[in-house]
Design brief:
The chain has 2 domains: 30-114, Leucine Dehydrogenase, chain A, domain 1 (Rossmann fold, 3-Layer(aba) Sandwich), CATH 3.40.50; 140-262, Rossmann fold (3-Layer(aba) Sandwich), CATH 3.40.50.720. The protein is built from 9 helices and 11 strands. α2 (44-60) packs across α9. The chain has helices at residues 7-29, 44-60, 75-87, 124-131, 140-151, 171-180, 195-199, 244-247, 262-280; strands at residues 3-4, 34-40, 63-69, 93-96, 160-164, 184-188, 204-207, 225-228, 232-234, 237-239, 253-254. It has a 6-stranded parallel β-sheet. A 3-stranded parallel β-sheet has the order 3-2-4, sandwiched between helices. With 284 residues, it is α/β, with parallel strands linked by helices. It binds NADP nicotinamide-adenine-dinucleotide phosphate. The site of NADP nicotinamide-adenine-dinucleotide phosphate has 25 residues, from α9.
């Protein structure tokens, strides 16, 4: 039987640690950490993510602000909102929920977030620091994956790691973090030739593709560690990028969907907000 990496349990443990730290630090700072979430439009999945982020804040004792706009909001209103939040002393982290409604380009709005409040770790500054091997606020989902691997005592150094996907949000920062842990990293994408051959040599596979059950058992080496970042809806049910039922028969360790990487993303967002709060208040 493979080790099923329980993202809910790991996430709960980290949230308890964050809450304990907030209780300890709030006296010294005279306030608790604050997170602002900006959402535009009525994408149902985004609304659920935002609701979970706000309730995550309440769980660990953070202050949170929720700025909601309809799908017709202008670029200038969003930039103005971000600028106000940048100046707000009670806010340590700002997140603009993606995707934005049609007609709004995130590249024209996200760069206005103060890089020190970029708790999603998506700015060129934060991603540049990661690329240089000196990260500050790390992109939440890949950071959560590293936490999961460590929680399961999986050795990363010297291992062949294959990341499928090269998005700025998941694939690329994931590869940089694995490299930082001294894995030998290969990044695969839609133009990769003979993906199966590359993936079948991996000791650690991270799937971040966005295609339900794309990674099948015949691609996986016996005893590999398989991390499924994918979140796809199939017949109304959440489903990963990995064919979990069959792959788990070969894997040494695997994350389920739901209950694997998903819960870690919000927890890492809370962790980044706490880090930003500590830095601002010289509490590091
Ligand atoms: P994305 O921006 O759409 O990137 C998908 C990547 O997969 C691209 O790099 C693409 O290659 C690659 N790809 C697509 N088809 C492929 C194929 N046939 N063979 C090999 N590579 C292929 O998606 P994302 O934002 O990285 O998200 C990936 C998945 O993770 C989605 O299911 C998303 O919902 C999920 N996700 C989950 C969390 C969480 O909290 N669990 C957070 C973020 C995202 P090209 O670059 O060549 O197009």
């Amino acid at each position: 039987m493979p080790h099923i990496i329980d993202g809910k349990a790991v996430s709960q443990k980290i949230k308890s640690e964050i809450k304990a730290e907030v209780d300890l630090l709030k006296g010294g700072a005279g306030r608790v950490p604050g997170l602002a979430v900006v959402i535009a439009g009525d994408d149902p999945a985004s609304k659920i993510y935002v609701k979970n982020k706000i309730s995550g804040c309440a769980e660990v004792g953070f202050f949170s602000v929720h700025k909601e706009f309809d799908g017709n909001v202008s670029k200038s209103t969003l930039i103005e909102t971000v600028s106000e939040l940048n100046a707000d002393e009670n806010i340590d982290g700002i997140l603009v929920q993606l995707p934005l409604p049609k007609g709004l380009n995130p590249d024209e709005i996200l760069p206005f977030i103060d890089v020190k409040k970029d708790v999603d770790g998506l700015s060129a500054y934060q991603q540049g620091l990661l690329l240089q091997g000196n990260p500050d606020l790390i992109s939440c989902t890949p950071n959560g994956v590293i936490e999961l691997l460590k929680s399961a005592n999986i050795e990363i150094a010297g291992k062949n790691a294959v990341v499928i996907g090269r998005s700025n949000m998941v694939g690329k920062p994931m590869a940089m973090l694995l490299l930082r842990e001294n894995a030998t990293v290969t990044i695969c994408h839609s133009k990769t030739k003979d993906l199966k051959n590359t993936v079948s040599k991996a000791d650690i596979v991270v799937a971040a593709i966005g295609r339900a059950r794309f990674v099948t058992a015949d691609m996986i080496k016996e005893g590999a560690v398989v991390i499924d970042v994918g979140m796809n809806r199939v017949d109304g049910k959440l489903c990963g990028d990995v064919d979990y039922e069959n792959v788990k028969e070969k894997a040494a360790a695997i994350t389920p969907v739901p209950g694997g990487v998903g819960p870690m993303t919000i927890t890492m967002l809370l962790k980044n907000t706490l880090e930003s709060f500590k830095k601002k208040n010289n509490l590091l």
